[in-house]
Amino acid sequence: MTTRDSSGQTADQLRTRPPYLRFAFANPYNLSLLTGSLAAAALTVNPILAAAALGAEALWLLHAPGSRLMQRAVWDKKLRSMIAELEERELQRKIMSLPAREQRRVNDLRKAKLRIDQLASQNQSFAGDLLRDEIVKCDVLVNSFTDMATTCARYERYLDGVDVRDLEREKQTWETRIRNAKDEPTKTIGQKNLDVILKRTEKIHEIRQYLGHAYGQLDLIENTFHLIADQIVTMQSPRELSGQLDDLLSGVEAVKQATVYTEQLLA
Predict the structure, then answer these.
(1) Residue 98 DSSP symbol
(2) Which whole-number Å values give the CA distances from 200 to 39, 121, 251, 263, 266, in the listed order?
(3) How far apart are the first and last CA of the chain?
(4) Average per-residue pLDDT in the chain?
(5) DSSP string covering 6-28, please?
(6) Closest Cα partner for 267 from 205, 203, 209, 192?
(7) Helices 238-266 and 128-160 meet at what angle, rounded to 10?
(8) Are 159 and 208 in contact (CB under 8 A)?
(9) Are 116 and 138 spatial neighbours (Cβ–Cβ below 8 Å)?
(10) Does pTM surpass 0.70?
(11) What are the helix and strand counts (H, E) for the chain?
């Protein structure tokens, strides 16, 4: 279940379709001016004032949401704040779904990322714009780490519910029945059952392979973050940081592609 704001939108939906119209209408300044004008019109029994207030509101809502000036000065800042809040809530939801050990790993990685931010901001060799690009990559890696840890925990729960020894016993049972089959229909149905057991066994093997790859990538992200924290004070350029982060992002992308395949297996 994805975290949504009060209007039911996710962070991705807010990013794709910013609710500028909602921002223009549902803000304290606009609402206070509109309600104040309408209240004054009602108290003075002045329909012209009410019509003027509604007309001004219509013009505001027609032009303000698309105003580049208003977007840069007001709307985009509010949008970024809303997206950041939703992403943090979503991240916390994922973290809380993890086993205690994995929760500690994610929280330790977030602390390492904050340490990198602080040390990078103290390095006079780092230009602001370039540094911001690398910090964004760190955020992506922390989120990806959490997603991978969540997926691994789910796969572990799936494997915990599978008795591999029981599968092996079933496999041997159907192999014996096929060998001892007295007629072709019995042999055919036995082979079909054996094929299903073999597919299940292969699926489990591939899930275990995925887990080995994913756990290795999680360890690499952790170790690299700690290494960067040790190195960053003496780095001469954010580009030195960029290479290490790009390598991690490439590894994460490979795991994501493997996740798609593994999800198909589970389906």
Answers:
(1) S
(2) 70, 51, 28, 14, 10
(3) 18
(4) 86
(5) TTS--HHHHHHS--HHHHHHSSH
(6) 203
(7) 30
(8) yes
(9) yes
(10) yes
(11) 11, 0
pLDDT digits (tens, 9 = 90+) for 79-104: 989 988 888 888 888 899 899 999 99
Q: Take residue 42 and report the two structure tokens written for it.
A: 């009602």
For the chain, the structural domain boundaries read 1-96, 100-267
What mean pLDDT is predicted for residues 49-56? 92
For residue 241, give the amino acid letter. L
| Complete DSSP assignment for 202-256 | HHHHHHHHHHHHHHHHHHHHHHHHHHHHHHGGG-S-HHHHHHHHHHHHHHHHHHH
Q: How many CA atoms lie within 13 A of 43 on its CB side?
A: 6
Query: What are 2-24's pLDDT values in tens digits?
Result: 777 777 888 888 888 989 999 99
Question: Residue for token digits 């904050």?
Answer: 114
User: Cβ–Cβ contacts within 10 Å for residue 28, how many?
Assistant: 7
Instruction: Give 258's pLDDT tier (boundaries 50, 70, 90).
Output: confident
Chain position carrying tokens 């014996």: 176
pLDDT at 1: 63
**Structure token digits, residue 204:** 């489990």
Question: Using 50, 70 and 90 to split pLDDT, how confident is the model at 192?
Answer: very high
CB-CB contact of 242 with 193 (8 Å) = no
Q: What are the φ and ψ backbone dihedral angles of 97, each rounded to 5 degrees? A: -80, -10
pLDDT value at position 232? Answer: 79
Closest alpha carbon to 139 in 219, 79, 225: 225
Using pLDDT thresholds of 50, 70 and 90, give the confidence band for residue 129.
low
DSSP 5: -
H/E run at residue 155: helix 128-160
